[in-house]
Amino acid sequence: xxxxxxxxxxxDIIRDAMFRGADGGYLLTDRAFAGADTLATSYALSxxxxxxxxxxxxxxxxxxxxDTAQVVAELAxxxxxxxxxxxxxxxxxxxxxxSLTTGLDDRLIRLRIALPCLLxxxxxxxxxxxxxxxxxRQLTDDRVRMLRxxxxxxxxxxxxGLSGSATQVERIFPPxxxxxxxxLDGDAGTQAQALLAxxxxxxxx
Length: 205
Hints:
Elements: E1 2-5, H1 11-19, E2 25-28, H2 38-52, E3 56-60, H3 71-79, E4 83-94, E5 97-103, E6 108-114, E7 117-121, H4 133-138, E8 144-147, H5 188-201
Parallel strand pairs: 1-2, 2-8, 3-7, 4-7
Antiparallel strand pairs: 4-5, 5-6
């Protein structure tokens, strides 16, 4: 099953996944969820997942808007589940545990994790199948369930949306492009001292 949060048009994302083989989905959509930062988003998702009770939660690494990669770890914390990020492969299942390979910048790590768990997948882990026209013809919208604020046991509005957010975005802008640069020469100690002096000169420290 697919779970996402957004406006009503986000149901198209769930339908596309169903055309590719998913059984159905849940869409969290309510004005009470609007303006949520990563903390409020992960909390709302956690309340839905606490009711669904899946054995394995598979998530992407990060969204394409805020690009923070924080929701998955926060979601795991709210649910009290073990989680592994940047999963490159799921190697086997045995006795209620999964064997995984995850990647860091300079190495691969193989580990085993108990179910239930939350996995954050690398985008290159597989190639999704093409949408099936036959499945598209057979599916109906009743397999996309809408979840709203009223469906949650926690009815405190201060836990959701803008009210439940620890941060607020004032504005979004591209970074200013500057052509200035400075090269620090010498050994590591000399470079460190020169960098510290430069940071103090610019009043960053």
